[in-house]
Design goal:
CATH topology of the largest domain: Neuraminidase
Strand order of the largest sheet: 8-38-37-10-11
Number of domains: 4
CATH architecture of the largest domain: 6 Propeller
Number of helices: 3
Radius of gyration: 29 Å
Number of strands: 38
Distance between the termini: 47 Å
CATH class of the largest domain: Mainly Beta
Shape: elongated
Length: about 525
C-alpha cells in the first residue's frame, strides 16, 4: 500500500507513522499531517480490531505514506531559450520529484508525453559484501576494485559494464584490518589503489600500482594510522599530477589529507576537520570523499553522524573552509557517499537511503554546493547500498553498489525527453512548455520559445539550393513587411519582419551553393 498526500489535505487516524529517514514523528493518536509531518516517505501501520465468533483479533496493515507538498521542479536543459532549430530536436529536462506521476511537453498547445529517464538492468560483477571502488579509464574501460572471497583486494574490468573479466588480485591475502580502498588511473595511464591495513603490529595507509591493471606492485606504506583507525580513505590525482589521500584517523577522529608527487614519498598529514573532544557516537565524523573540481579547488564531503553530510573546500589542500551542510530536499544524506563533478559542472553526491521500505541508491546535484536537487533514483535493485558513482565519457551516470553480498553496476539517465521532428511547414516561433504532476497533485512547469529555421541560408524557395529563383522570390516581395498581403515570410531570410536589401544580400552571398540537407 502506497498513499501519496499533501499536508494541507490529509489526516490519518489511529495510525503509527515512523519517518524512514530517521525523524522523530511517531504517534498513535489522530495525526494532522499538515501540522506534524515534513515532506518525505513514512512507514505507516494502521491498527484495527476484528470480531470472529465473539473473539476480537487485533491486526495491522503496513505500507508507505509519501507526504508531498512541494511542486516538481522542471529544469529545461535543451534547447536553449531563443534557439534556432531544425530537423529532429531533442527536448530534454531534469525533473526533480521522487513522487512524480506524469510529465509532458506542450508545443503550441498540443501535449505529448515525455519519455522517462531509464535505469539499466544491474549487472553482477563479483560476490563481495563491501563497498566497491569504480572508475572508467581513459580508454573507456570500466574497472571495479572490491574485497575478494580470498580476502585480498581484487579488480575486474569491462568494455561495456556488462561482460566482466576474470578476477585479478591487486593485493594478495588482504592485510589484516583492511576496511577501505580507492582505485584511480593517473594521467600517465597507470592504475593506483590506496587501502588501509596492518603491517606487523602497526597500522598504515598502503598504496599499490599497476601499468596494466593485471600485475600489481607490492603495497608500500604511505602514512601510519592509529591502531584502531578505520580510514574510509579516498585517493585522487590532481591536475598538476600530485596524489592526494583523504582519510580518517585519530582519537577523537579527524579527517586528514596527505599528498605525494610520485606515490612513494608522502607528506605529513594535514588535519581538515575534527570531531569534538567529548562526542556521542551519533555525531561522529566518517566517510570522507575527496575530489578536485574543474576550477582546481579541492573538496571533501564527510558524514556527520546520523544527521547530515557536510562539505569543505580548499584552494591548496592545506587550508580548508568552514564546513557547510548538504541539505537535500526530502532526504537525510548520511553514511557512505560518493562525490563527483560531472562534465556540465554539477556536483553530485551519491548515497543510499530507504525508500518505500527498502534501500536504494540516489543522487542529488548542486551547481554551487548550497542549493541541492531533490533525490534522483539511480538503482532499482532493492537493498542497494555502499555506492561508488562516476560519469562515463559519453555523459551517462554509472553506479557500482552492493546488494545481497554481491557487487553490481548499472547506468542511469537523468533527463526526461521528447524528440520533436520539425518540417518546413513549422518554420517560425514556437512556444514549448514542460509540465510535471506528482501523485499528490502538485504541478511544476518550465517554458521557452524557439524558432524553427530553414537550414539552407539564402534559399527563399526552399529547394535546397541558392539560384536565380531565390532572387526572384525576394524581388517579388521586396519592400513588404509582416502583416502586408504581399509579404512572404520565406523570402525574409534574416527574419527581421521586412524584406529589403539585406535579404537580397543574403542570396548574393550564398548564390550558387547547393546544400545536400536531408529533409526531416
Amino acid at each position: 500500500m502506497i498513499i501519496s498526500v499533501r499536508r494541507d489535505k490529509t489526516k490519518i487516524g489511529s495510525t503509527s507513522i515512523t519517518d524512514l529517514a530517521g525523524g522523530d514523528i511517531t504517534r498513535t493518536d489522530s495525526i494532522a499531517l499538515e501540522a506534524t509531518a515534513a515532506d518525505g516517505t513514512y512507514d505507516i501501520c494502521t491498527h484495527f480490531a476484528e470480531e470472529e465468533s465473539g473473539i476480537y483479533y487485533f491486526r495491522s496493515q503496513g505500507g508507505a505514506l509519501i507526504v508531498d507538498n512541494t511542486s516538481p521542479l522542471v529544469d529545461i536543459i535543451s534547447p536553449e531559450e531563443g534557439a534556432e532549430v531544425w530537423g529532429s530536436v531533442k527536448v530534454e529536462a531534469i525533473i526533480e520529484d521522487l513522487n512524480l506521476h506524469r510529465a509532458s511537453v506542450i508545443i503550441d498547445g498540443e501535449a505529448y508525453p515525455l519519455a522517462a529517464p531509464s535505469i539499466t538492468e544491474p549487472q553482477m560483477v563479483a560476490a563481495s559484501w563491501h563497498r566497491p571502488s569504480f572508475i572508467q579509464d581513459r580508454d573507456g574501460e570500466f574497472w571495479v576494485a572490491y574485497l575478494s572471497g580470498g580476502g585480498g583486494i581484487a579488480v575486474r574490468h569491462s568494455p561495456d559494464g556488462k561482460e566482466w573479466s576474470e578476477e585479478t588480485q591487486a593485493v594478495e591475502g588482504r592485510p589484516l584490518g583492511t576496511s577501505w580502498w580507492s582505485l584511480i588511473q593517473n594521467s600517465n595511464g597507470r592504475y593506483w589503489i590506496a587501502l588501509d591495513g596492518d603491517v606487523g603490529i602497526d597500522r598504515y595507509i598502503l598504496v599499490t600500482s599497476s601499468s596494466d591493471g593485471l600485475s600489481w606492485t607490492g603495497p608500500k606504506t604511505a602514512t601510519p594510522l592509529d591502531v584502531y583507525s578505520m580510514s574510509r580513505l579516498s585517493l585522487i590525482q590532481d591536475s598538476k599530477g600530485r596524489y592526494w589521500i583523504a582519510y580518517l584517523d585519530g582519537q577523537p577522529k579527524q579527517v586528514r589529507v596527505i599528498s605525494s608527487l610520485d606515490g612513494d614519498s608522502w607528506s605529513a598529514p594535514t588535519a581538515v576537520v575534527s570531531e569534538p573532544e567529548q562526542v556521542a557516537y551519533a555525531t561522529t565524523i566518517d566517510y570522507p570523499s575527496l575530489i578536485q573540481d574543474s576550477s582546481g579547488r579541492y573538496l571533501i564531503t564527510y558524514s556527520w553522524g546520523y544527521e547530515e553530510t557536510r562539505v569543505t573546500t580548499s584552494l591548496n589542500g592545506i587550508t580548508w573552509s568552514a564546513p557547510v551542510s548538504i541539505n537535500v530536499p526530502g532526504a537525510k544524506v548520511t553514511g557512505p557517499t560518493s562525490f563527483l563533478q560531472d562534465a556540465q559542472g554539477r556536483y553530485w553526491i551519491i548515497y543510499h537511503m530507504r525508500h518505500r521500505g527498502a534501500f536504494y541508491v540516489f543522487g542529488s546535484y548542486s551547481y554551487d554546493l548550497s542549493k541541492w536537487s531533490q533525490p534522483f533514483q539511480l538503482t532499482f535493485l532493492a537493498g542497494s547500498q555502499w555506492p561508488s558513482g562516476i560519469q562515463s565519457a559519453d555523459g551517462t551516470y554509472w553506479t557500482a553498489f552492493v546488494s545481497a553480498n554481491n557487487v553490481y553496476v548499472s547506468s542511469s539517465e537523468i533527463f526526461w525527453g521528447y524528440q520533436w521532428d520539425t518540417t518546413a511547414e513549422l518554420e517560425g516561433k514556437h512556444d514549448i512548455k514542460l509540465e510535471a504532476t506528482d501523485r499528490a497533485g502538485n504541478v511544476g512547469s518550465g517554458s521557452l520559445t524557439v524558432t524553427v529555421v530553414w537550414p539552407v541560408a539564402g534559399d527563399a524557395d526552399r529547394d535546397y539550393d541558392v539560384d536565380i529563383f531565390d532572387l526572384v522570390a525576394v524581388a517579388t516581395a521586396f519592400n513588404t513587411k509582416v502583416g502586408e498581403q504581399s509579404y512572404n515570410p520565406k523570402a525574409d531570410l534574416n527574419r527581421d519582419g521586412i524584406i529589403d536589401v539585406y535579404d537580397l544580400l543574403k542570396v548574393g552571398i550564398h548564390f550558387g551553393k547547393v546544400e545536400y540537407v536531408q529533409a526531416p
